[in-house]
Design goal:
Layout: H1 8-19, E1 56-58, E2 61-63, E3 78-83, H2 88-95, E4 104-106, E5 112-113, E6 116-117, E7 120-121, E8 136-137, E9 140-141, E10 147-152, H3 170-187, E11 194-196, H4 197-200, H5 214-219, H6 228-240, H7 245-255, H8 267-280, H9 291-304
Helix pairs in contact: 6-9, 7-9
Length: 311
């Protein structure tokens, strides 16, 4: 009798009722149209089939894990890198809570087992750590919900300034590369999804700072970087006719930064520009848009977001 229904609303209502039952055999494929008869799949598991399976004992019930759904995805969409602004002991105390936490901590001089660095895991990847705070990237907000965080022990800049940045050790960066490469591979992260805290919260944060070697990570297969020839092409173009401020900020937004295109360099716009420069042109992070910054940005869009490239 199911196939005799011709009104889409009636069919949809019946489908919803049937799919709410554990014994239902009806599943709608993504491309199913309400005027088509839905396909019927094989019946669900018999009532007693679980008796032959190992079961997971929980409080007052047992769980059979032998019937996984084929449609799901990971909560992890981004990888966020931080510095601690503290030494090992202070960072470890702070990251144990109650106000902040992180998935991984890389100490100032990571221990080694043979030639392999040891990193500290403080929160399981499946759990939400409190490392990003108020944040946004590529249209998503509250990135604690959708990211893994790595903290690196580093004091950052001289107190009260954006100068005198503490260096990262070679051992730390080797550990970051190994860890970030593994996370990126396991979750299939887009190169533009590997970011710094300053990228996702530019008005509040400056870490991991201009001393962090983003280009070295890129050469190790981690994260985004523009092609030099593309930067040269756009720089020559912009020296003749630079983009307007609104076009530049629109391009920053298209790449991922939470900034509104406007014809005025607001504090938000300056902070986003500074974060971009710290990431991709660390020799000069004034926060002022210029020809080279625009060329780098357009080259990144051409490589990773060509559909968003301003024409």
């Amino acid at each position: 009798m199911l196939y005799s229904l011709t009104r889409p609303a009636s069919l949809i209502a019946l489908v919803v009722l049937m799919t709410g039952c554990a014994s239902s055999s009806l599943t709608l494929p993504t491309e199913w149209h309400p005027h088509q008869a839905p396909p019927l799949l094989a019946p669900g598991p018999p009532d007693r089939l679980s008796q032959s399976h190992p079961l997971d004992a929980r409080a007052g019930y047992l769980v059979d894990h032998h019937y996984p759904a084929n449609v799901s995805n990971s909560r992890v969409r981004f990888l966020v890198l931080h510095f601690t602004s503290d030494d090992n002991a202070a960072a470890f105390r702070a990251l144990q809570g109650p106000n902040v936490s992180v998935h991984y901590l890389i100490t100032r001089s990571p221990e080694r087992r043979g030639d392999t660095p040891i990193v500290l895991q403080m929160v399981p990847e499946s759990r939400r750590a409190w490392h990003a705070g108020v944040s946004a990237w590529q249209g998503r907000t509250h990135l604690n919900d959708s990211s893994i965080g790595i903290e690196i022990v580093n004091e950052g800049p001289r107190e009260g300034t954006l100068n005198g940045w503490a260096p990262y050790s070679a051992d730390q960066i080797n550990a970051v590369i190994a860890l970030a490469r593994d996370i990126s591979r396991r979750y299939g992260l887009d190169p533009t999804a590997i970011v710094g805290h300053s990228d996702i919260a530019p008005t509040r944060k400056v870490d991991p700072g201009p001393a962090f070697p983003w280009h070295r990570l890129y050469r190790a297969g981690i994260g985004a970087w523009p092609r030099p020839e593309s930067v040269d092409h756009f720089r020559a173009r912009f020296e003749r006719e630079p983009p307007s401020l609104a076009q530049f900020l629109g391009a920053l937004s298209a790449y991922g930064y939470a900034v509104s295109p406007t014809d005025r360099l607001t504090d938000q716009a300056r902070a986003a520009t500074r974060a971009f420069q710290m990431h991709f042109r660390p020799a000069d992070y004034s926060g002022e848009p210029d020809t080279q910054t625009a060329a780098i940005l357009w080259a990144l869009l051409e490589r990773y977001r060509p559909e968003a490239l301003p024409r």
